[in-house]
């Protein structure tokens, strides 16, 4: 008799994080990965999401679906970012509950923490100060997602967990010239400058801001690790009103150092200048990852290795990013 496979829904499977989770889960036996494209299932449509969960017999949910972008995108489309992310989260979490799905993992963001939070940022820094202005709508939506999970756990006894990744990068990233995060934007800019034999590349900001970066396959591995933790162990290391877990490397660098490393990986030999009229964002964003380490997981891909893998993926898929 064939063993019944555990059906796992990965929301956002075409995105950078969701696709990495699918890659990792594909290595596990006795599970069936369930995915739906945006055309097949509009996650902002409450009725459609509820009907999906009621008929699909899902055992676990990875909520990796989100509208994401860098400083420019967040500043330009604040209404889109708060509305779409709130709708996606509310629909999936509530519908999962109504369908009696006990296990769910919500993926948030390090931007949930105050702009001037003590470094490195521990989980208990949440809601202790003012958020960074440029991505406040997105951050508010992600905070709401954490509190949704906590509230369903408290009221209904669900096992809905949350992980807060630091800045992610890797395969299936968004390399759009205006709406991407810093690493894919730099990879594309340096690559095109190299092809054009440009003598100079201009980077945004002063270069002094410090950031932490995590390769996306590490994030996927951490997500599965947290999802599969015994509930007693998870509960012992979290609190009902502080249940999220930071995911990162615990190591940061200046944007200046990042820019130089990307240039090295891509092979750009020209001049690098910084446009100090552009915003730096928060001065520093480093995650305290001691809680995750105590639960038995640490990152394994260093920055230069991860950037090399990202650039290799970009080269294989660059036709997708023309224009």
TrEMBL record:
Site positions per UniProt: Important for catalytic activity: 109, 111
EC number: 1.1.1.271
Biological-process GO terms, alphabetical: 'de novo' GDP-L-fucose biosynthetic process
Residues noted as binding NADP(+) in the record, renumbered to the chain: 12-18, 107-110, 142, 165-168, 181
Highest rank taxon of the organism: Bacteria
Keywords linked to the UniProt accession: Isomerase, Multifunctional enzyme, NADP, Oxidoreductase
A GO term for molecular function: isomerase activity
One Pfam assignment: Epimerase
Annotated positions binding substrate: 189, 204, 211, 280
InterPro entries: Epimerase_deHydtase, GDP_fucose/colitose_synth, NAD(P)-bd_dom_sf
Enzyme active site: 138
Pathway(s): Nucleotide-sugar biosynthesis; GDP-L-fucose biosynthesis via de novo pathway; GDP-L-fucose from GDP-alpha-D-mannose: step 2/2
Catalysed reactions, as listed in the record: GDP-beta-L-fucose + NADP(+) = GDP-4-dehydro-alpha-D-rhamnose + NADPH + H(+)
Domain NAD-dependent epimerase/dehydratase: residue ranges: 8-232
The protein's role, per its UniProt record: Catalyzes the two-step NADP-dependent conversion of GDP-4-dehydro-6-deoxy-D-mannose to GDP-fucose, involving an epimerase and a reductase reaction.
HAMAP family found in the cross-reference section: GDP_fucose_synth
Similarity annotation: Belongs to the NAD(P)-dependent epimerase/dehydratase family. Fucose synthase subfamily.
Protein name as catalogued: GDP-L-fucose synthase
Organism: Colwellia demingiae
Lineage: Bacteria, Pseudomonadati, Pseudomonadota, Gammaproteobacteria, Alteromonadales
Chain's gene name: fcl
